Amino acid sequence: MNSTRLKVGLICGGTSGEHQVSLISAYHIQKALDRNRFDVRMIGISQDGSWFLGDSENFLENHEDVRKVAFTSSLPVTIPERQSLVIRPENSGSLDDIDVFFPITHGRLGEDGALQGLLELAGKPYVGSEVYGSAICMDKDVCKRLLIQNDLPVVSYRVFRSGDFIDYEELIQELGSTLFVKPCREGSSLGVSKVHNAREFQAAIKDAFGIDRKIMIEKAVQGREIECSVLGNDSPKAAEVLGEIVPRHDFYSYEAKYVDDEGADLIIPAQIESKTSLKIREAAVEAFRCTECRGMARVDFFLNQDDDFFINEINTLPGFTSISMYPKLWEASGMSYSKLLEHLIELALEN
What we know:
There is one protein chain. This protein is of the alpha+beta class. The chain folds into 3 domains: 6-126, Rossmann fold; 137-153 and 222-350, D-amino Acid Aminotransferase, Chain A, domain 1, CATH 3.30.470.20; 157-219, 2-Layer Sandwich (Dna Ligase, domain 1). It has helices at 19-32, 114-121, 131-138, 140-149, 168-175, 198-209, 254-259, 274-290, 325-332, 337-350, and strands spanning 6-13, 38-45, 51-54, 60-61, 70-71, 75-76, 100-103, 157-161, 179-183, 193-195, 214-219, 224-232, 237-238, 243-247, 264-267, 295-303, 309-315. The strands form 4 sheets. Strands 12, 13, 14, 15, 16 and 17 form a 6-stranded antiparallel β-sheet that branches. Strands 6-3-2-1-7 form a 5-stranded mixed β-sheet, with helices on both faces. Strand 4 and strand 5 (70-71) form a beta hairpin. The longest helix is centred in the last third of the chain and has 17 residues, at 274-290. The chain is globular. 44% of the residues are buried.
């Protein structure tokens, strides 16, 4: 083996509801990384926040089943330290010699800038957006405000905080009879409900506030769900090919994404008129820039029958499972999964 291989710390798991999806993403990433170039260290964060270190071959079990995937290794590890920032206990692994980290920790405390801030304090380069962009895009409300400020189209919405009075009749007058209720700071459609009446609305409000103290209520848009992959730092580019999600459920829920093997059809390339496709790709890059993203992001759109489009959300740590749209769109645009990972690591070191 090449002794000058770059040491890559692949961080996965985390305390969010997307813990299992993160493990599956990590499995596919470690499998694709070229071991002649990279010395891969698997770093797991359990659902209670403990950190673990293990080898890639034995770190995960049931890696193809989102309902059963779990850690198999349990060597405790300390987080990377800068001077005396962290005191290392005896009998633990060390991450001090890692050259670059690759977080694939979807959701809260992994994708929202918290983990990124820790790595900044440790003085370590890492894949993906920095603290700013991560925090901005995790908060759907803050993200949309920046998109609106930059004249990018979004779906009409209202934001409420815990304790606010919410008038259902007023909302349907303003936003329409079918609504989406979402936690503002959660991913993978966790806590998201599509509601058609007052009874469903009250249940949806309770579910969303059970996850976040700030929620978003959106107008439901009749249209196609289109996804665009963006890659780069100061000069980001969108993949030439767009993808389309066709849910078989009422909407693209967590179950449709990860639990139900037939929850949705993924169409690559999406059949879109070339002029509209170009506009969507340009809007994705502009959204990436104005929300301070770096490295990578998947920008999700709604496209209606008049070819008008709206940005739904921006995902700064998109999935890397075998069915994930982000790497598939780059593969369809001519960049293999393994080359995409190498480029992401190069972008991290560039930062």
